[in-house]
From TrEMBL:
Organism: Protea cynaroides
A UniProt-annotated Pfam family: RVT_3
Descriptive protein name: RNase H type-1 domain-containing protein
Source species taxonomy: Eukaryota, Viridiplantae, Streptophyta, Embryophyta, Tracheophyta
Domain RNase H type-1: 153-272
A GO MF label: RNA-DNA hybrid ribonuclease activity
SUPFAM superfamilies on file: Ribonuclease H-like (SSF53098)
Superkingdom: Eukaryota
Amino acid sequence: MVWLLVLRCVNAKFRLTRLVTSVVVNTRLWIIFYYIARMPRAIWFGSGLSLRIPIDDSLSLPQWIKSWDYFFATSKKQARTVWSHISCLCWSIWLSSNDLYFHGKQGSPVDVIFRASKAFEEYLSITSSLKETQPARDNQSWTPPLLGFTKLNIDVSFSVEHKSGCIGFIFQDSHGNSLFAASENISAPSVLLGEALAIRAGLQSAVVHGFLNLVVESDSTELIAYLTCPSSTPPYFAQFVLEDILSLSTICNATFQCISRDANQVTHALVRK
């Protein structure tokens, strides 16, 4: 299938070149395009991606297609591996055609398959090493606060085009019970300011309802960095709101920490309503 696609692309490119440049086609171009058009077929059926065609009529066409287990992977991980292999093969075909056109170097299907296999093996080794060295993410799921503390989770949905959105916050105790939640529409020049307005609104609500010993959680890494690092310099449009947040935090005895979006799903759903 892939080699037929390449063949059609090559033929289309050839027709376009013939129309744009000249009616008379150079003999060398004929040889090159003939070579390029025939190479993918030999490479495709010489690689491990092809499927042997049954010689009898024991399988219908849908059954035969479904039996192509390697191509129609059952999981996303397997599918990524298959398409990575196909990409390496197509890239190797492209490099081989460039070698022929620009350098007059004619490679064999075996050379193309070997180069694709080598590139594919390097890709697998690199991706596997990255997975081994990648640190595990913390706070993948929401956890309740310690006894005597209250968690305040905030989030914002924001439209950059309209410079407006919706903020939301929710208070939960050490048993995971919801104590209070609210949402409201806002106008702001950036997502950062929207997140800051959400925290300020949550802290103001905490003062009204008498919630103390707060653990404020947000999935905005930038905002939490400004609140936890006094030496950082926030954008001018957010400075006054951040000052309000720090003042309110002393009243509520609040601390700030960053969590993943997966751990902030409840508040995320609140601002999406």
